Fold this sequence. Notes:
Elements: H1 11-29, H2 31-36, H3 39-69, H4 76-107, H5 112-160, H6 167-180, H7 186-205, E1 211-212, H8 213-231, E2 235-240, H9 243-246, E3 249-250, H10 254-265, E4 274-281, E5 284-290, H11 305-315, E6 321-324, E7 328-334
Parallel strand pairs: 2-4
Antiparallel strand pairs: 1-3, 4-5, 5-7, 6-7
Helix pairs in contact: 1-3, 3-4, 3-5, 4-5, 5-11, 6-7, 7-8, 8-10
Amino acid sequence: MKEKAYTLNDQKWRMIGIPLLGLTIAIMVNFDEFLKLSQLFFISVLFSTLLTLTFWEGNRFIIIRMRRAFPEYGQTGRRVIGQAVLAVAYVFLISLLLDELYYKPVYHISGLGMGFRISIVPTVIVYLVYEAVYFFDSWKMNVRKTEALTRENVQSQLEVLKNQLDPHFLFNSMNTLAALIDDENTAAQDYLERLSDVYRYVLVSRNKNTVLLSEEIAFVDAYVYLNKIRFRDNLQVEKLLSNTALSSHVTPLSLQMLIENAIKHNIASRENPLKIVIREDGEYLVVENNISEKTILEKSTRVGLQNIINRYNLLTNKEVEIIRSKEQFTVKIPLLGQLVE
């Protein structure tokens, strides 16, 4: 899915700001003529307004491009530096053009220095206004996203851990059970150890917005191990991931939810084994499985795709993609950089 292109809703600002800034610059540069209200002053106002229009629209184009390239609140530094470099280059080129087309032919002088000094004034004003408004709006949006993400995580915790026993009691019970299992019964010991790993990860990650993919994969391995005791080779999970992908971040428990949904809705038998593949695709993590739907579905916990979609909507502009064909069900979730918890 394509991301929405960033646009500026600033028509009123431009209609008022361009003529006002043009008039202000004309007064500053030709104050004596302004006091006389001479014809030269009005020509200066027209020229300053056209000049302001040129720089306003050009810098506005740069602002839009930089915000599309660096839209996140945490990318403010890179966005501002990029805008500054492009703005100075743009002002210099326009000033050089004015020097060749206006100052030299009309005044028979090189006005590059004068033109650059005059041109930088509307440029700085435009950038200060646009960036201040954008920074404040981004800050407010970031606060709202954080609050919404907190609510979403709380809802997820309530659903996943609704009937959770006291953690200390449960871990103590597991330790007691481990002591009761015969040392030679390694299968039971391994199962209990993996069950403890799964429960521990849920407790540790439940208050985080993102976790390393490598950590999520380790959790998934333990979760798949528990299910393979039940399904054996009828459940097959393949992972095709690079070290770069493993160092990226995902929302906690997202992979487990996708695997759980695949197991819940599909048959896993010797004749129709359930095959799940976890792989990377550019900036996305792909989880896909073959479709062999059950005639009677298991009871849903109501924690699944919509929960994942909602959480990613709060963390990134990239959308979760769901693709269903006749034989394959695929979910693509964005790989994230490290976010502030």
